[in-house]
């Protein structure tokens, strides 16, 4: 993942360091291999990766492009760590060199940054938008900037098995693109978000990778040469679409079609992830939040026969604050149409570390025992919290693509489930969370469970089952990303 570092602080510290450090970044130049319209591409490397490592990808891009592509690979940053100040120096030096070689300010300029290299050029892009024809963010993104505020054409390009800038990281950018696309269909060409399948973080570059990449990236599945071909194709199309004054309308239209196709394929790829995330929590229009998965969990506990489903309504209420959940109880009533209405209660507990999915859904449910006093019907066997969580993984695997499930079964650390840990009081349950125990080959999930018997004279807390539930989003993130990353103990 891109370094979570505040760039302003980073720049201040670095500037002090630069004052006592001699030297400046340098550039490696790749001469064009085609005739045609001159175009410049300047590449900013990822953290602790030298610019020369991007030569194979850029040479493949030059081969695939119909343009006369001049490439500068910036390198020799202080501590081999790209930063905004030195990136500006490297870009300006490259532009001066290209001018010396006969290019002028009218030559279309494209910038590319890999991982941290993308983050450090954000300010430059905003300050020099009138000089830039387009930007390619390779496994990178601007953490605080909305897509609609970016002043130049920009493509996000990442791999489906990138262990640092993951597919779940890219969902934010893609959702913004889809929202913009509803207002302006040209946005799919101006701000495309593309995920290249079977490519990882390291395969934008070449050679030995830094420790952070080795520890976090998902192992490669295809040869690097194949990855370069896939990545270069998308980059070539994007650059062609945004090269001005191009006397080849047919090629530009084909490139636009190919960019649109790549975005459509990304949309299809991400749909299972969006669907699983949507099951965590949604908001009724101008009203409360609810959880489809909490509703499903309550139905699993009730396990009412199909013939009686129209006599019951299961709903849920999701809270924003722990104190609200602590003070709440699940409810069951009979409405005016004699339908039994069960309202489960819950809260999303946020992600930690490198994860995007919620850690858990803390859930308050009604037991089958108390439901049966409201409804004369056939009931199947009720379930504990473990069974609900097992069902969650099954649903995630049903949503995921066959390739993803096969990869998980073949290479991933398998998710298993331990028996629930029984607690004897509500205050004790309030302090529990869903347990994740990892080894080199497995992830074991364990919920706590609080159950109370049905007490006729005790309202609310009578006949309840409280669980720490696995989120479908966490389950699918495990399948697509987390189970495949190296185990570091």
Set down the secondary structure blueprint.
Blueprint: H1 7-19, E1 26-30, E2 38-44, H2 55-64, E3 68-75, H3 84-100, E4 109-114, H4 116-119, H5 122-127, E5 134-138, E6 154-159, H6 167-183, H7 187-190, E7 193-196, H8 211-216, H9 224-241, H10 249-280, E8 282-283, E9 289-290, H11 292-302, E10 312-319, H12 322-326, E11 331-334, E12 340-349, E13 360-366, H13 368-374, H14 385-399, H15 402-411, E14 414-417, E15 421-422, H16 426-430, E16 435-438, E17 442-446, E18 448-451, E19 464-469, H17 472-480
Parallel strand pairs: 2-3, 2-4, 4-5, 5-6, 6-7, 10-12, 14-17, 15-18
Antiparallel strand pairs: 1-3, 8-9, 11-12, 12-13, 13-19, 16-17, 18-19
Helix pairs in contact: 2-9, 6-10, 9-10, 10-17, 14-17
